[in-house]
Every structure is written in structure tokens, then in C-alpha cells.
Request: fold
Amino acid sequence: MYPIKMIGQLGSALVMCCLAAQAVLADEVRLTIPQGDLVGDVSADGVVSSYKGIPYAIPPVGDRRWTAAEAAPAWTGRRSAKQFGPACMQPNPPEMMSFGPGTEQPLMYIEPVPVMSEDCLHLNVWSPLSTGHTEQADLPVMVWIHGGGFTTGFSSMPVYDGEALARQGVIVVSINYRMGIFGFFAHPELSAENPDGIAANFGITDQVAALRWVRENISAFGGNPDNVTIFGESAGSWAVSLMMATPMSDGLFQKAIGQSGAYFYAMPSLKEPAMGYASAESMGQSFAAQVTKEGLQGLRSMTAQDLLDKTVPGEGVPNFGQFVVVDRTVFNRPVRDTFAHGEQHAVPVIVGFNSDEGSGLSDYGVVAPTPASAADYEAELQTRYGDLAAAYLKQYPAAQLTDAVFDSYRDSEFGWRMEYWAGLMERVGAPAWLYYFSHVAPFGETERWVSFGSEQRKLGAFHASEIPFVFNNLDVQWQSDVTVRSDDLALAETMSAYWVNFAKTGDPNGGDRPLWAPYKSNDQRFMSFADDAKPAINLLPGSLELHYEIDSRRAERGIAWDGARAGLLGQTEK
Reply:
């Protein structure tokens, strides 16, 4: 990443950023916001200031475990904002894993987790500094929501450093939020505590609270609270779709970018069985009974680490990362239904996905093993998809079985959802720009074991590989010793410029970059990010239609559906 360092001797010069005075002293920058006084850092060249670890909500600890986020109070004195806050509670997976004899390799997406705590509801801000001018007032704001399946991740990952984007004239905010059982849990006693309030979806209330903090505080950094773009990848993109669906976020953002993820899944209902699930309360109560005889009080008396250790996936343990609940408060209906009824926030969006989404994610068992033969593959399709098996086989033929498995996973879990999202925005009169990222950076040339040791496959344009291009942080690759090429640098400049221009104007176009036309159902225009940016039409023909039909049948037949049941792990036949 671009390191944030103390600047040299500037004496006691004052630098005006936008409408706010940021006092740059010998080795720090100071700012007063509504919460209080902050001391932050500036980049080595004095262009960008950064403020880290700012609390946006009251710590959700003790009796506040499983309560809706509440705004953090003001503080007295001067608060240091030079270090990131702790990560929210999450498992620490092993660095290496084996796919069979002689196939040990590093687990993808493993980033050393910093100090963890339930007291983790902090955010970070990168803001451009100027040289005494005020005409850059009211800068656009980009709020990043990290991914990690709603179970892992943190805002301080080096690839999320906002300095390079801030250099292009925007303010960047990155947030932490509660995950796993701490952010997504339901229990009858929680509902009894909150008969008219929020009894689930606590991690979502964190994200809303962070956006409220932005609305109330960002002008002090020079930002425009009425020009906010939310953006995220994977579960962060789930969060973007969720923010567009909840009435709680109304008016808190004006544009949205979703990268590889839309929460168009079956969703449990808080109090009654629905969509193939038991009620969320009953699932939470069943889990609690395995852990303690003292109900909610017993759960709250456990240490955060002990509670986390009890949520290792297994029989009777829900996937708390996909435990977003229809509770009639945060969400009135399943998110896909909200979009289908045209009830989502009608804001401009950029949405898209990558050509090798299953690569990397296959480490986590969400991609099916490659069938032993074409006959086995066809039989599996028949069992899972019935009369849709022939259409599935036509879309993903058996000539190369591993490609068929990975491509169907990509389109089932990501591709059709992102294109469907774009089409649904057209219905509410909001423009949408669709993209397809197939650029293979140097690390993408790496061959890795897949399908539990049966063969090796290049990573390609793997899940999350676009993030360093969006942030223009190519010196923070998944392997730091990989040499960045000139075409990588050029594409990063292009992609980050599209994202920034969208944040500024609500349209990614501008400058001398190729014209990116909005998505329309009659021509299905999209931008291909391969060796460079090229406009194209009709992305992956037939996949949208096939997977829409599959998803519709699951909904009709009450077959639960989530991100662990995609492609050849999914089904329409009970």
C-alpha cells in the first residue's frame, strides 16, 4: 500500500481542507469534529490526511451484546487517531491447508488478524489536504464496507488503504461492523427485550450507524454529507444490497457500488418458518441450548472468545454469517423481493463480478469437487436440477469438467445476481453500470490445487482480485513479491478513475476513458475490464435466464438457498 507517514518539518503552518481547518504541525494533523478533537497523520508529501480508529457507536459489550448500534458520545480532550482500532471478533483460520497428499498450499484471503475485541465499532477517514484554497469544499465521500462472508475481515487490511483514492479528490471512509454470532443472532429472549424494536440484524445496524456518523461528521473533514457513495466487495457488496433494501438507511447515501455479491438469498423469518428455514428465533434458541442452560443471560456472560469458539460450523450450528433475518423492522421482506417489488432505494449503481470467482473461494468448500466423469456430471445435474439439467448442460458442457464446475459456480453465485441487480434498477428509473473483470494480474497466473487435490488450476481473475485495482493499491497484492506490470498499473488508473468519477457525479464517465454505457435490458451493455477497458454487450448469454429460473423454482418450492449452495452444490429438486 501507500504508507501513511509523518511529514517533515512544516512548522506550525495551517492547511485548509475544503471547509474544515486541519492544522498540520511538525509531525501530525489536528482537526475538530462534532465528537471532539482528533490528532491524525498525513502522507509523506503532505497531500492526504488520515484519521484511524474513530468510534462511531457505543461499544456493544456486556449487556449491550446483541443490541442495536447507538451513536458514540463525544469525548473530552484531544483523541489520537493514528492507529486502527481492533478488528471485530472472528475466527483465526490456519494459514495452510491440504487438498490431498502433497497438495498443501496457503489458504486464500488469510490476512493476519490484528487485536480483536467486541469493542470494535470504529472507522477510518482519508481526506485530501489542499494548500490554502477552499474551492474544493464539499468533496464526495466513498464509504467502504469490507467483505469476508459476514464472519471475517476488518477495515484496516492494507489493500483497503484509502490514500490513493483520496488523492483523486474524494474522502474515503472504511468501517468495522459486528460479524458472525455477534452481528447476526436471534433468540426469543432478545425479542422479548425489544418488543417494538430491533431484535436481530445487529451488524446491519452497525453499518447504518456508521452512515449516520458520516452524515453528522463528514463535513468537518471537508466532505459533502449529501454526496455519499457506499461500496463494497463480496460480503461488503451484500451489505450494499442490504443498505439499499432497509428503510433504516433512507437518505444516508446517494450512490452505490456492488462488487461480486448481492444478498438475493432465502432469508429466515424472525418468528415463523419461511423459505426452507425454521424461524430465526428457534434456530438461535436451539444453538443456545447446546451452549448454556441459562439462556440469553448465559450467552452474555460468556467471554467473546468462548462464544466465538462455540460457533465453529457443525451439526446444529447455523451459519451466522448468513443469518440476515426478515424481522419486519430492519427488513420488511427478503431482499430479493424488495428489489423485485421496486422498493429498493432508487440510486445510481455500479455492479459487476469477476471471471474466476470460484478461484480462491474453492479453498472454503463452496465450489463443488470436479465429477469423476462426464456421465457422473450429467447424472448429478439430473438429480439436482431435473428438467433444467439439459439447459444447464448446454450452458456448462462436460467437455472440461473443472471449468464447467467453476463457471457454473461463478454465474450461480455472482454473475446472474449482479446482472439481475442492474436490470432491476432500470425498473425504478435509476441508472446502472455493469462490469465484468477478467484481467489476470501476475498472482492470477499462480496454479493452485482445487477439487480436493484432483488437479491444479490457475487462479485467473479470482474473487476479490479487482480490489487493488479499484483502490489503485497495486503494491498491496495477495503476494507482495509479485512484480506489477505496466498494463496492471494502467488498468488500476482506469478503474479507480471510473469509481471516483461515479462518486463525484453519479456517472463513471469522464476524461478520455472509453465510454461506459448504462445497462439496458434490450442490449445488456457492460464494461469489460480485461487487458484494458472495452465496452461490450450481452454478457455470458443464457446464464442470467437459467439461474433466474433456478432461483425462482427454489423460492416456489421452499428450498433454502445461500452462498454455500451454488452451482453444482445447488438444487431445484427436493
